[in-house]
From TrEMBL:
Domain Thioesterase: 117-201
One Pfam family named in its UniProt record: 4HBT
Organism phylogeny: Eukaryota, Fungi, Dikarya, Ascomycota, Pezizomycotina
Listed name of the protein: Thioesterase domain-containing protein
SUPFAM superfamilies membership: Thioesterase/thiol ester dehydrase-isomerase
Annotated CDD domains: PaaI_thioesterase
InterPro entries linked: HotDog_dom_sf, PTE-AB_protein, Thioestr_dom
Amino acid sequence: MAETGPAIDHFRSNQWANNLLSSEDYTPVPTDSRRFNPSIGENGFFANTLATPTTIPHVLTLQRRHIASPQSEPPTWLPATKQDAAASAKPTLSATPADIIMIYDIGSPDLSGHRSTVHGGVVAALIDEAMSLAVAAHTSASAPQTSLSDDDRRGNMFTMQLDVRYRKRVNNPALLVVRSKVIARVGRKFWVRAQALQEDEQSAGGHLEWAKRKVVKVDAMAFWLVMPDQKL
């Protein structure tokens, strides 16, 4: 598995990332996809293509120490309009603790679509990655004794549907934080929410980290399926 030590050392220099690292509610865990498996070519995208100085040189995954059980019935999908969202009485993802927090050091220019803007497809992939780790956290918590090794804990998990809502452009180079949470589970079916956030450099307070607004750049929801071992 990818080691967390070098990533922790790197992100300690950023005040926002350091605050996340200092939370007693979360603990660093290996980012499995940063470990390339040459025998089968697994994880080549995150471990090789997205692991360069001009893409994502550093990434760190934090997992909530106590994973709460999600609801046991299918949830309502993302609201279709702002009016629908305003009418919803359910708490938003930002108001509830995330299962997984991924901190990405976004480089430039190799992830850019428009100038100083990360390509939307890349952003979707980063969100999908955080969602996979949230599903893995829940499957590990409910069935710690599994036929899959730790290295393979995501090997039987697949995204079946991914709905990404882009609110604002994701800047680069910059820090990107993705929060993901399993909001419902029915057997092998998982529903996951995620948000990608960046700091608002133009907000009041200037360089003071505590005064910078954390802006939701992207909101997403997905349906995941965990396949039985015998069907892989």
